[in-house]
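From the shared-data thread, chain only:
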Amino acid sequence: MVDVNGTVAEGFEPVREAFVRNFDALGDRGAAVAVYRDGHKAVDLWAGTKDFDGGTGTEPAEPWEHGTAQIVRSATKGVAAAALLLLHQRGLLDLDAPVGEYWPEFKAAGKERIPVRQVLSHRAGLPVLDRPLTAGESLDPLRGAEAVARQAPVWEPGTAHGYHALTYGWLTGELVRRVTGAGIGDWIAREIAGPLGADLWVGLPEREAGRAGRVGRIETPGTGGDGALRARPKRSVVAAYEDPDSLTRRAFAAISPFPDQNDPAYRAAALPATNGIATADGLARFYASLIGGVEGGGVGGGGVGGGGARLFTPETLAAARTEESAGPDRVLVVNTRFGPGYMLHGPASPFLGPGSFGHPGRGGSLGFADPESGIAFAYVTNGFRKTVTADPRAQALVRAVRAALSS
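Structure, as tokens:
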């Protein structure tokens, strides 16, 4: 049986039991889960090895520690969405204004009228690049922004939705840069992670990269892209991915070949669609701050017991979980639901309840908030699976949280 470290509050014992089962029955190698309730930490658990491939050679495996962080893949999208929504909250970005108002080059190829809101809700018709970026090119956010600015929509914007698996990062990152003058990674560090005291980065800084044992090595799957298309193993999904001309295949090949995700250069780049790095506590803390104050660390008013600030006003919180897209997804080939930047609770992205919002990441990482119960949840792992929107390990933990709340 795996040696589990950390604590659970009274009543949340089912989460610890599910976490143990993830190792014993579902093959987890290294992982952590954190849950906040009403801004107070209720679950903080970690176990296994820091590196997925640890202990397989002559060197002993390094244990997962409390501060171990991992790449969380598309769970990064929820943090990027918060950056744009906060700029809107501060009156610096109008979600209904054309993107070209802030980014003139974006108007090319018939995109003059696409509003920011359609970018966030995956309705802009820009999930693919006619000329994919190489692995090296993808690490330069300006190259990605230039490519997506030149790209023509593949459907009439606003008439359908389809997951912008990789292009979402260049779209959101360049909007933040045009509005603030700062790279999105730097802005998130200054305006979100720093004030909250959250171990969360989009673009790992050198000081963190240099800390021994800080970031674990993840399992690197053989397929490129985000992998969200494997969320439901239906024949149509597999067929779409195998078809080189499908939107599914092209969306996940917008970077080809995909970079080595354990490469320090990849970790240091700011790719807000795919390469956020976080501890489970850091990601859960972030979501806790969207729905209320959060205890301990951080600065600013509105926190619990002098802790971190509440980031979203009630109006912004309501906007974040307002449905903007629903039904057949032209990229994922399943029914999905999106608000502005966040996946919403539903069959393809099951969270805690109807009002939950968040974002999963390839391999199983998951972060979300549920305002009705006051729950903020995060799970990070170094062992990738083919699923992303309904990973069985993350879902087992979500069910355990639900059981704890109903007991």
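The chain has a mean pLDDT of 91.
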